[in-house]
């Protein structure tokens, strides 16, 4: 995985004031406590509701801007997004950057002109894709989407907005709370 420009997966990517803002907005708007099963099957006593962030156009735009340094370094041909939250982020990043986007589905849609395809949007073999995900726990869905794109002959740099600290992928911010601990602002 050639992602040296992103640093190591356990180091957040982005300017410190913006990362402090992102942590605060997560705590203020998107964090809930309870007993949850996350996408990868892991149990957690907290949940980050991404739609509490992405539904606010000002918050979504600011998150999208955090990817600007990565775009400058990676120089992608396409911005890719995983279904569903990654596609929202990818759309915002595409709009701000002017770089075309694509979506990678979890399953083929099963209908229409191309019912067995996972990828929506134009691409050419050899294109470089900055593949975005919203929140990763174990990174399984993001890495599966990466593998699907690589099977099509695309070069892929995966990155998430938030890593819960369990995934071997890069993220703008790593966010984890010890079990049962109250969040600190």
What labels describe this entry?
185 residues, alpha/beta, Rossmann fold, 6-stranded mixed β-sheet, 6 helices, 8 strands, globular, disordered N terminus
Task: Detail the topology: elements first, then pairings.
Layout: H1 16-30, E1 31-37, E2 43-48, H2 51-54, H3 57-65, H4 68-74, E3 78-82, H5 85-97, E4 101-104, E5 119-120, E6 128-136, H6 140-151, E7 155-163, E8 171-174
Parallel strand pairs: 3-4, 3-6, 6-7, 7-8
Antiparallel strand pairs: 1-2, 4-5
Helix pairs in contact: 3-5
Structure, described:
The longest helix has 15 residues, at 16-30. The chain has one domain: Rossmann fold (3-Layer(aba) Sandwich), CATH 3.40.50.2020. The relative contact order is 0.19. Helix 3 (57-65) crosses helix 5. The protein has six helices and eight strands, in the order αββαααβαβββαββ. The strands form two sheets. A six-stranded mixed sheet has the order 5-4-3-6-7-8. A two-stranded antiparallel sheet has the order 1-2. The radius of gyration is 16 Å and the shape is globular. The chain has 185 residues and is of the alpha/beta class. It has helices at 16-30, 51-54, 57-65, 68-74, 85-97, 140-151; strands at 31-37, 43-48, 78-82, 101-104, 119-120, 128-136, 155-163, 171-174. The model is unreliable at 1-8 (pLDDT under 50).
């Amino acid at each position: 995985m050639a992602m040296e420009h992103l640093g190591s997966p356990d180091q957040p990517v982005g300017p410190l004031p913006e990362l402090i803002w992102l942590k605060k907005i997560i705590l203020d708007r998107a964090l809930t406590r309870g007993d949850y099963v996350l996408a990868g099957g892991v149990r957690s006593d907290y949940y980050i509701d991404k739609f509490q962030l992405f539904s606010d156009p000002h918050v979504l735009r600011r998150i999208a801007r955090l990817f600007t340094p990565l775009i400058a370094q990676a120089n992608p041909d396409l911005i890719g997004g995983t279904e569903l939250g990654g596609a929202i982020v990818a759309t915002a990043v595409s709009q701000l950057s002017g770089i075309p986007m694509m979506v990678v589905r979890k399953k083929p849609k099963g209908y229409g002109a191309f019912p067995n395809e996972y990828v929506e949007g134009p691409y050419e073999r050899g294109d470089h894709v900055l593949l975005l995900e919203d929140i990763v726990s174990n990174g399984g869905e993001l890495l599966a989407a990466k593998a699907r794109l690589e099977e099509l002959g695309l070069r892929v740099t995966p990155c998430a907005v938030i890593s819960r600290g369990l995934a071997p992928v890069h993220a703008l911010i790593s966010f984890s709370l010890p079990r049962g601990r109250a969040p600190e602002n």
